[in-house]
Amino acid sequence: MTTITNAPQQEVDGKVALVTGAASGIGKAIALLLHARGAQVIAEDLDPAVQDLERPGLVALVADITQDGAAERAVALAVERFGRLDILVNNAGIIINKAVIDMSRDDWERIQAVNATAAFLHAREALKAMMPNRSGAIVNIASYASYFAFPTIAAYAASKGALAQLTRTLALEAIEHGIRVNAIGVGDVVTNILNEVVEDGPGFLAQHGEAAPIGRAARPEEIAEVVAFLASERASFIVGSVVMADGGMTVTAG
């Protein structure tokens, strides 16, 4: 039986975490919060801006998470610098807004590569590092689009649906080794993810979030709090869940 002793402010104290897509938005908020709560963190991103997060106990890694060998290097860096890996957060994600008829195969495969395949690759390597310790937590950043869709997000919705199912299957395979796998069904969050799609990405997301029952979009820090909880022993009985943090969007969808 797990004994829970840590208060939220120290919930990941002494843990080692790897966070993908950590240069900005939700990933940056996650990396900083886990570090502030006592974890040593590898912050991985294709954007060199991730290096701005560097500080004692927080190491930046500039890498393309979709490339062969990237996951292996990230996990190896965690073990080399901090001796182990306890937490993986598959946060990196991209979106494209195109009707299926206008979408190229390259468009489709790029979204799947970042949002689903890279999560698989990082989870596979993380499990190898966690299994000898018989403990660990993987948190995947899914979406309300794991469950419902609207026009122009076919590639994104498919990738997030895949991530939800990957989460459930990994959870069944990992729990016998003491490793919990869960996901978060994120709603609209004020980030830069749409900057290549619309003129004012954060503004669009803030406005779109007003359609949720809560009446607003989330701040990245609000999602980071859910990650910290799921990664900690406070969530010791949560296995294979997609925890919705969408302001109630899926309650009214459809």
Report the sheet with the most strands, covering strand number, pairing sense and barrel closure.
Answer: 7 strands, parallel
CATH architectural arrangement? 3-Layer(aba) Sandwich
Q: Summarize model confidence as the mean pLDDT.
A: 92
The low-confidence parts are: none
Count the beta strands: 7
- Look at the helices and sheets and give the structural class: alpha/beta
Order of helices and strands: EHEEHEHEHEHHEH
Report on the structure:
By secondary structure, the chain is an alpha/beta fold. The chain has one domain (10-249): NAD(P)-binding Rossmann-like Domain (Rossmann fold, 3-Layer(aba) Sandwich), CATH 3.40.50. It is 38% helix and 16% strand. It contains seven helices and seven strands, in the order E-H-E-E-H-E-H-E-H-E-H-H-E-H. The chain has helices at residues 25-36, 70-82, 105-130, 154-174, 201-208, 220-231, 249-252, and strands at residues 16-20, 40-45, 58-62, 87-90, 136-143, 179-186, 242-245. Strands 3-2-1-4-5-6-7 form a seven-stranded parallel sheet, sandwiched between helices. Helix 1 (25-36) packs across helix 6, helix 2 runs parallel beside helix 3 (105-130) and helix 3 (105-130) packs parallel to helix 4 (154-174). It is globular, with a radius of gyration of 17 Å.
